[in-house]
Every structure is written in structure tokens, then in C-alpha cells.
Amino acid sequence: MHAIVAFGIVANCPKHIGQTIILNNMTHMKKVMLALLVATVPMMMQAQSTGLFGRKGIKAQKADISAYSAKGAIPEVNGKVVFSDIITAPGKSKDEIFSRLAQWVSLRYEPNSTMGDWREPEFFANIEYAKVKTADKQSGKIECQGAEELIFSIKPLAKNYTQAFYLLDLQVSDGKVEFNLNTLSFNVDQGEGQFVRMTAEEWITDKECLNKKGELRRIPGKFRIKTIDLVTELKKEIAAAIN
Q1: Domains in the chain, start-ordered, CATH in brackets?
Q2: Based on C-alpha coordinates, what's the Rg of the chain?
Q3: CB atoms < 10 A from the CB of 239, how many?
Q4: What pLDDT digit, counting tens, does each position of 150-207 carry?
């Protein structure tokens, strides 16, 4: 109704007044369109950074790359890649820590789930071989089989990822958990749907992953980065679970 009345007024006005009204209407429309555009930009940016078609990826920042390329960043014991640490829970008893830790591993290593999701939901998914192998309250020993996707990046209708396999041994005692991640390997994409199993010793150690300048080699380097991120995140999750 308002548009019809406005048109009628313009039609019956002198020419210069009608032109002024049209220009004012056009100016108002431009302001409205600009306001709508400004309001939608944040939503558009958010949409680009999330979801299947997002361009996000878990990548090490250049400023932090030295932590991944540092010699010994992938620790070796007798020629085998082994990550070990002590995660403390001051004042907590062995039974209390075990109960909390057992609950965490039952979710984190549930097959075909994203319950252990870290960083972003699209960057983690257990595969069918994930499981809790041992959970003995009396001895305080928990052993888990890690079998999961480590995703490097997601592009439209495609993702760049590996499947990682490892053993996680956790030994509980009063006030602490002994963390030991070992027997690590990856399915490395050879193209055309072909994968080759590579052990961590063959793929992400200093010898295999660093060039003569001490820089990360491009392909194994991204595996090294993701492995270090995984271990760091696991320890954080365990610390949060038991404290």
C-alpha cells in the first residue's frame, strides 16, 4: 500500500519534486542494504570458518614451529618412540584417581565415536579398533588402544588425514598417573586410495623428519606436528579428568 501511494505522489508531483523523492527513496534503500550487509558479514565469516566447507585446519603457527622441529621433540627410548610423563593429582587417592580415569577412558576410547573430540569436532573421530584393553583397579593399570583419525585439513568435499594407532599405558598411584604412549604408527596416503603403514620410528623422528637445516620435511612434518598436538591434548584431558 505504501509503495502504491508513494508512486502516486511521485506521479502527481512536479518533475523536480518527484526526482527528489525518488533520490531520497534510493538513498534510504542503499542505507538499508548496507546495514543488512554489515550485519551478515560476521555470520558469513563464521560460516566460512566452520562446517564441512570451512577452510579451517589445525596448523602450527610459524612462531611456534620451533617447538615441533626441535631435536628430541619426538622422544626415543632404545630406538623406539615413547612419550612418557607424570600427571599429578595432589591429595587424591589411588582409588579416586582410578575411578575418574576409568570414566574418562571409557568415553575417549569408545569405538566409532567423537566423545574424545579435541580442538574441533571435525578433527577427531575414533575408528572401530579403538578400545580400552585393560582397566585393573587393584593394580591401577589402564591400557588403551588408540585408533583414530588425525585430520590435517578439510576442503570442500575432501579431507586430508591419517589414521593413527598407538598404545596408551596409564599407571595410577596415590596423587599421580604415569603416562606412557608407545607403539605408534600411521596409515600414510599414497594416492588413489592406497595407504602404507609407517611406524613413528620410520616417519616422524629427528632422523626421518628433519632436513639438514633442522627444518621439518613437508609431508612427515605434518604428522610430527599432529602427533605432538595429540600427546599434549591427551595429557591435558587426563589432568582435567583426575583433578
Answers
A1: 2-49 (no CATH), 62-242 (3.30.530.80)
A2: 28
A3: 14
A4: 888 878 777 788 999 999 999 999 999 999 999 999 998 877 778 899 999 999 999 9
Q: How far is CA 46 from CA 42, 43, 154, in A?
A: 6, 5, 15
Helix, strand, coil percentages, rounded to 5, for the chain: 45, 30, 25
Q: What is the DSSP string of 11-78?
A: HHS-HHHHHHHHHHHHHHHHHHHHHHHHHHHHHHHHHHHSSTT--------GGGHHHHHSTTSS-EET
- Which residue, 146, 119, 144, is CA-closest to 58? 119
What is residue 195's three-state secondary structure? strand
CA distance 36 to 221: 44
163 phi and psi angles, rounded to 5 deg: -105, 125
191-215 pLDDT per residue, tens: 777 889 999 999 999 999 999 999 9
Cell 632422523 identifies what position?
207
